[in-house]
Amino acid sequence: MNKVVIFNKPYNVHSQFRKDHDEMATLADFFDDKSLRVAGRLDKDSEGLLILTDSGELNHALTTPAHKKGKIGKTYLVQVENTPTQIQLDALRAGVPLKDGKTLPAKVKLLDTLPITLWERHPPIRERKSIPTAWLSITIFEGKNRQIRRMTAHVGLPCLRLIRHAVGTCVLGELAVGQSRTLHLNDEQTRRIFGL
Question: Is residue 56 classed as helix, strand or coil in its secondary structure?
């Protein structure tokens, strides 16, 4: 059986167990199971679904770029400054040129409502009364460093808040921030849940 932990990572928590200094918030503040490894990092200023597992095979599948193995999509809820235009949305869908290469095509939707109940973030995002914000759902099939933030900035939509909502068919759901749930899955269940 594979142990899979679904964790709703809070803002400002590093996706690692090692602490570089005492004040640094890491996964060690939430877990003491030495068998767990992070299957795909999430920046400290990003929130939401983080998967930890004792399965080397699952870890490899979730961290290997799509063009090498599978097509596991990672879906993010992205709050951006400004109201996106159709041109900006189409550019994100087609892929945008970044310093480390053009991104693969992405699935992008402008959201009227969020699929989760949003929790308060500490500290809260900056708000400017004269600039509107919007929420997007963006699914990517690769994992360049800070990719979503760089993509939205490239098309003129600065990212204010970034929440990973799903990896494959595994979704965050209504798991409270800082909370986790543990699954014990056989290989077939693991493949089905993560779309392997």
Answer: helix
Q: Residues with catalytic annotation? A: 43
Provide the residue range defining the domain that includes 107. 2-194
CA distance 17 to 140: 26
Residue matched to tokens 């053009």: 102
**Interval 126-146: pLDDT, tens:** 878 888 999 999 999 887 888
What domain count does the chain have?
1
CATH of the domain at 115: 3.30.70.1560
Under a CB-based contact definition with an 8 Å cutoff, are residues 72 and 64 in contact?
A: no
Q: With the CA atoms of 141, 170, 50 and 74 taken in that order, what torsion angle do they form, in degrees rounded to the nearest 10?
A: 10
User: How far apart are the C-alpha atoms of 90 and 84, rounded to whole Å?
Assistant: 10
For range 169-194, the mean pLDDT? 85
Tell me the average pLDDT of the chain. 89
Tell me the C-alpha distance between 104 and 136, whole Å: 17
Integer Cα distance of 9 and 162 in angstroms? 11
